[in-house]
Amino acid sequence: MAHDEDDLLAKLTRFSEDVAPPTTADDDNATDDNDAADGGFDVDAFLHGLDAIFARHEAATKAEPYLLDAMEQAENAGDLPGLLTVLNETMGFYRSQSRHKDNQWIIQRAIELALRLGLEGTEAWATTLINAATSQRAAGNYEQAEDLYHQALDCARRVYDADDRRLAALHNNLSMLYGETNRPAEAVCELREALAILEHGSPNPMTDVDIASTCANLVLALLTQAAANNEAADDNNNDSVVTLDETAAYARRALEIYRAAGAEGSAHYASALAAAAQVAFTRGDPASAVDQYERALAIIRTCYGEHTDYYRVTEANLSKAREALRAARGMMDAHADSPQEVDAANANNSADGGTTNAETMPNGSATAAATASPRRSGLQLARDFWLVCGKPMLEERYPDYVGRIAAGLVGPGSECFGFDDATSEDHDFGARFCLWLTDDDYARIGEQLQRDYEALPREFDGVTRSTTTPRASGDDRRDGVFTIGGFFTSITGYASAPGADKPHLWMTLDEATLANATNGRVFADPLGAFSKARQSFKLMPQDVWLAWISRRLGMIAQAGQYNVPRMLKRGDGAAAWLCIDEFTMAVSSLVFLLNKPVTVGYAPYYKWRFAALRALSRRAGMRLTEVCDELETLLRRSSAACFAGAGFGEGGAGAAPHIKEVERIIETICAQIVDELRRQGLTDADADFLEWQRPYVEAHIHDPSPCLHSL
Known about the structure:
The protein is mainly alpha-helical and 711 residues long. It is built from 29 helices and six strands. The strands form two sheets. The chain has a four-stranded mixed sheet with strand order 5-2-1-6, sandwiched between helices.
């Protein structure tokens, strides 16, 4: 078995591929037939060895070296499917160890490798997306996680049978994300769907530990929903009121299944114990809560160690339960903090941006005390509008097409980047979404569907659509009904991204255009056609990527390292100011490129460039994260450096110290860029002047097309 917080998810970390003849994993676990003479890589032997490490509870010291060694073996053997299996397992291990920053590059590498292998639309693609989404969720990167989960769900519905428990696993994990982002009703809905799939397809529900895991998760989601004043769930959930009796029944069922299955020593049993403890605490029985939290903590300590989020949050919950027990011996003030609130605090204050896990401890997405709702983002408003108004309209009026229409919000506009605020609401803002159809479907229903879309309410949930500017009107409208190809053509000039054999077309695109084509969120894509076209623009060919990097290096060197000092020396502050602007735009672009567009997207146009750069710099596992602050300091210093003059201010030092600091920051940033180029294997030169790094980068370009090479 695999090793993560969810038995169901664990089954998703494995997929089968035909592989080359084997090498062994760990000497302790090798079998005689694993010593292949040709030095291949044996996936089965690798998985067997990894299972043995976990079975001996040696993961803390032996799992990582084993995984890294397996990566090297798979690469040396040229076994890319085998390497993808190792990367999927590594994601699960780093996630269980709360090593979210280390995991970012594993996530990126796994997705890129799966795409390189042409696995889109396959079970292996769904597997990789789910593992990546769950890792991003654990790291607190919720928007990325949700997007990946929905891509995985679209794929899974096409490649899995209706009773496939991997589909239940996906609903289970999506529910955790909803729980951690304060959407308990949606979390409950996903879990009920997962439970129904499992119950219908299980050969023995009485001993099915996947059902037990889902019941434990459902307990936590129901408690969170109850903490929100026991209000009705959303329209997708038929249960309007949460009762403690129902919740307690799910907790008992989970424990009973683990006992009947003889799985009381598993890490997943700790989840059921923690869920039962939360129920006991909520019902005013801290003595039972203490007992169950203590037993859960002992299992977590054995299986995962004491340095994980799982352990820390469960320990905090236990502490709260002990306080309550000491205070009243079973009598708890109705207004006292619950362990649930401890989870919320832990999730919000985690030093590395990590989050709690809803299976191992109470869900941390909501507290018992009602709090004022923050402003809803434009993307969230769009999704709610789609669920409440758009989707029901399609189901009622276009039942034959609802399984063929993609929906979401992508394109120009601050809300598509997640950067909207109250100021953004003065124009082109309101509840809106896009519907994307194939050419044939648009020819049949497109015009009528557009009329039906326009008939949807202009006011939704207290938000009225603001003035529409000419820029967002007519052919340039930002919402409504589109053909898939027409939508991307209106933004980029291409219905889908140019092929790798047409680098000259890629070189005509700019980052702002590509950012508009790949931002936002897709709410539904039954055919997968829209997501495939959107993803194609993120998959910049390797040679084009290298050429873009080379161009940025050239501008950074020319504008920043060469011309800023010269213009300042000449006393031409205005020219120096423009050089600093060119330097800043090129550096910020390079940060996105070196973090890979398939993972982080593209740098948006100048207005949102720093908002995007700040957001990227806060994400775990990113490269050149210090550059954002350094660029902002550079811009602040530039005013005095460019315009202070020789004797600025009576008795002042003038521009000299600011000029010195500007030049120091520029060289510091350039040195960091060289370090990153070396780290990624793009150069082996030490040259600080970035123009001299360009030949080393371009040496990796295989395509001889002149457009990809500098003069």
